[in-house]
Amino acid sequence: MRPEDALPPILDLDRLVHEPARLTILTVLAAAEEVEFLYLQRVTGLNKGNLSSHAQKLEAGGYLETVKAFRGRIPATSFRITAAGRSALQAYRERMRAFFGA
Amino acid sequence: MRPEDALPPILDLDRLVHEPARLTILTVLAAAEEVEFLYLQRVTGLNKGNLSSHAQKLEAGGYLETVKAFRGRIPATSFRITAAGRSALQAYRERMRAFFGA
DNA sequence: CAATCAAGTTTGCATTGCAAACTGGTTGGA
DNA sequence: TCCAACCAGTTTGCAATGCAAACTTGATTG
What we know:
Two copies of one chain form a homodimer.
Chain A: H1 15-18, H2 20-30, E1 35-36, H3 37-44, H4 48-60, E2 64-71, E3 74-81, H5 83-100
Antiparallel strand pairs in A: 1-3, 2-3
Chain A binds a DNA duplex (30 and 30 nucleotides) through residues 15, 19, 21, 37-38, 47-54, 56-57, 72-77.
């Protein structure tokens, strides 16, 4: 291998997706229309604090949107994945698959 | 879903492997007997500093071993993956594959 | 109406990864 | 011979991250 052959980074992953907690969140959201905070918390095994902050990061990155509503008089937060989120997840999957060689 | 149904974490990944730089390093090492520092640097696209520190972490975790030698009078460092490293990588791959559903 | 619970959010901290600076030795040139 | 440039790698400094615990706001219960 000659120096000129220096390769571009082999594994260039979207860090926003790469974090396991967020990867899990996105994967769950990708499978459903809209998901409630508490349901998501149980499925992911995250505590409220971390779910809240990871969701905020995903929202800041445009990968999900937060829907604030009330169930009765109690506030209930739900999430939806955005188109950008869906394709980021898709791209992430494909890079991983490619890296591991089909 | 009732509270008692709280699931164990869905995606429990070995953080030592999960970091893209280290995942790349391990994957390269898994494919060869022994790999020299500079070669590894070019293939991974990491700078020396980061390759050095990631390799140290992998070594601390028992996933690779460092072989110090000389080529002529110039020091040359090489790495080998250990059995533990190989199986950690394998386990990581399988978890990912399982998570993404075959 | 005090205490408890529900639903999230914010805070504090220890850990990380990254790039830049540094070290110890070697080679080439004047 | 002396010193500047270079090679091979390590250490350092810092900003960003993830995690758990503490906090907030409001609703319900005894």
